[in-house]
Amino acid sequence: MSDYRLLAPETCKKLFDSDSLLPTTAKNCSTPDSLFPIPAKKLLDSRLLVPDSCKKICSTSHTPCSRFLQKNARLPSPRFRLHTSCCVLQQEYANSNRFCHLIESRDVTLKRPMRGVARLRGFGVKANKDGNFNSGKMAPDSKVNEETVEHKESKETEYKTKIVWFNVLLFVYLHASFCYGIYLALTSASWKTCVFAYIYGNLGGLGITAGSHRLWSHRSYKAKWPMRALLCAFASIAAQNDIYEWCRDHRVHHKFTETSADPHNIKRGFFFAHMGWLMCKKHPDVSKKGKNVYLEDLWADPIVRFHRRFYIPMVLFFCFYLPTMIPVWCFNESVWNSFFIAGLTRYCFSLNMTWLVNSAAHKYGDQPYDKYIEARENAVVAFFGHGEGWHNYHHVFPWDYSTSELGYTLNLTKILIDFMALIGQAYDLKTAHPEMIKNRKLKTGDGTRMKSVEHPEHELCIQS
Ligand SMILES: [Zn+2]
Ligand SMILES: [Zn+2]
């Protein structure tokens, strides 16, 4: 147990100042506008923070975060109106949560000794102003603490991937159908069926990007019920779980990115992040940590509740029946051709395009806004994902409805939302200020895309 070292967050500035190994983190920790991933990254290289005290990091050592937490115990609140500073704070809150989880994950696996600080055991240890450690609520050598850690460790190492063979067979069949659909498209189907399948697939994609993702998951804009109903129908075309479940997984992904609690953790490999995560049982941390994710705002929306209740019939109708029958009714296409091309091939293709956001956009591309996270700017994924490939930006500014600073470049979803705003269906569109983007680039970017190309068309964080 002597391998586990603890630092007291509330005095981290003093500690870091006194620690020759981490001279720069001291400044980051104490600067109000600093962002967590920088010190987190450096800290995790050599030491651990007390998991139980993670909140203290926010409440004591991080001034704006503290203000934010005091005002908003639960996030994101539907009643909470974002304003300029809170946009930053919301991001910092998300970062700090991820930071805490990273620490929690690492504190049971890191075993190498630390240099430059006193050796400590157990949780709840505090450091005084001189950088010396005193026991806090729990004694450093407490057996309970050791058992807790050992229990955690065993749970961590015990986890083994359990394959869900039913899902494996389902995806094998779906991809085989995709190949057969391509064969039919090239040999016997009408070109009109192929064009229809492509357009219909894009509608489904927009249901996910503009609806499940930017509207419901991130609340990056608001929409009147006709638009929400339309997006709900579009999301049924895509059939990627009901809106509630999709948003839950996605919020967990953002909150615990690149940890064991991330449903499609890129650290487990490209294939796992792409589709492997749907073929095996979830890591226990996904469910455990996922319970803390706020979802009440979703449940408050009757359209989300409706979609969850009638998900199966809606998918059967919008994802399979309608795309099969429209070419039959309109172009005299055979049901067989239509089912495989506009039904299964279109469905399989759109699934893979969405999955690319979780895999390719977390592995290949630049990191202009935060080089300490795996999310990347990927133009190919942006093209096929209607703008979702600008993923480094999205993870840094998840509340921005356009998910990029590049305007309409490879961003069909932004075009749709802007059009809907034009006809009064979408409102309160939130977007990041160029200064904020620039500062972030200077602070944590990898040096690419240093020139912004467009100014936002909307006021920063419009209040309703
Ligand atoms: Zn992501
Ligand atoms: Zn997102």
UniProtKB/TrEMBL annotation:
Where's the Fatty acid desaturase domain? 190-398
| GO MF annotation, one | iron ion binding
Gene that encodes the chain: D11DS
Topology in the membrane?
Multi-pass membrane protein
Q: What is the lineage of its organism?
A: Eukaryota, Metazoa, Ecdysozoa, Arthropoda, Chelicerata
What's this protein's family per the entry? Belongs to the fatty acid desaturase type 1 family.
Designated name of the protein: Acyl-CoA Delta(11) desaturase
What does the entry's domain section say? The histidine box domains are involved in binding the catalytic metal ions.
Return the CDD domains for the record: Delta9-FADS-like
Name the residues that span the membrane: 163-183, 195-216, 310-329, 335-357
* Location(s), subcellular: Membrane
